[in-house]
Write a structure and sequence with these properties.
The chain is of the alpha/beta class. The protein has one domain: Aldolase class I (TIM Barrel), CATH 3.20.20. It has 8 helices and 8 strands. Strands 1-8-7-6-5-4-3-2 form an 8-stranded parallel β-sheet. Helix 5 runs parallel beside helix 6. The longest helix is centred in the last third of the chain and has 15 residues. The structure holds D-xylitol-5-phosphate and zinc ion.
């Protein structure tokens, strides 16, 4: 069953908890939290204190996507604030294998994210250690962008590799997903769809989540 992870990047931050509840009651499976530092990506969002405010007030697991340099310095803070999955970018950490195992040693699931132009070769030697691979289907930094069509092939390629090497790994796809392209993404092999604008900018987020899952 396909999972949907609404990205709070497109939510109204003046009433964040209501926005979280809206997608929770709407059938979301995870809460995708985009953390940006203004260095790794040209945008700044939020940090652990915001997660701490939501912790205990929703049953949605926090799926934390770190678009920050040297993520290893902040992982523990995000876990204390409630993160259940922490995803680091392969382009942002010098010692990926060490970082993944550090996340595991803290008792939660590690994810690894790849920018659109980053080769799948970069994750070849960490497939035994990781729980989730996040493929960016837009260049990271902003919500509401258009999916890069070539990423569908990348998802299929990754699916093939995973089936051979470690079928337990989940594929999360992030960026530009909507009800019109969800089917192609799922067919290519995605397990989790992240969607920001398609859910939060829709007049009926619950319906949007339902449609994404139906695909
Ligand atoms: C982009 C973020 C995405 C983004 C998705 O850098 O990682 O999670 O919020 O938003 P949409 O679905 O609007 O592209
Ligand atoms: Zn994201």
């Amino acid at each position: 069953m396909i999972k949907v992870a609404p990205s709070i990047l497109s939510a109204d931050f003046s009433c964040l908890l209501d926005e979280v509840k809206r997608v929770e009651t709407g059938g979301a499976d995870l809460l995708h939290i985009d953390v940006m530092d203004g260095h790794f990506v040209p945008n700044i969002t939020l940090g652990p204190p915001v997660l701490s405010c939501l912790k205990g007030k929703t049953n949605l697991p926090f799926d934390v996507h770190l678009m920050i340099e040297n993520p290893e310095n902040y992982i523990e803070d995000f876990i204390k604030a409630g993160a259940e999955i922490v995803t680091v970018h392969v382009e942002a950490t010098m010692h990926l294998h060490r970082t993944i195992n550090y996340i595991k040693s803290l008792g939660i699931k590690p994810g690894v994210a790849l920018n659109p132009s980053t080769s799948l070769d970069t994750i070849k030697y960490i497939l035994d250690d990781v729980s989730m691979i996040l493929l960016m289907s837009v260049n990271p930094g902003f919500g509401g962008q258009k999916l890069i069509p070539g990423m569908i092939e990348k998802i299929s390629e990754l699916k093939g590799i995973i089936q051979q090497k470690n079928p337990e790994i989940l594929i999360e796809v992030d960026g530009g997903i909507n009800v019109d392209n969800a089917l192609d993404i799922i067919k290519a092999g995605a397990d989790i769809l992240v969607a920001g604008a398609a859910i939060y900018k829709s007049p009926n987020p619950k319906e949007a989540i339902k449609k994404l899952k139906k695909e």
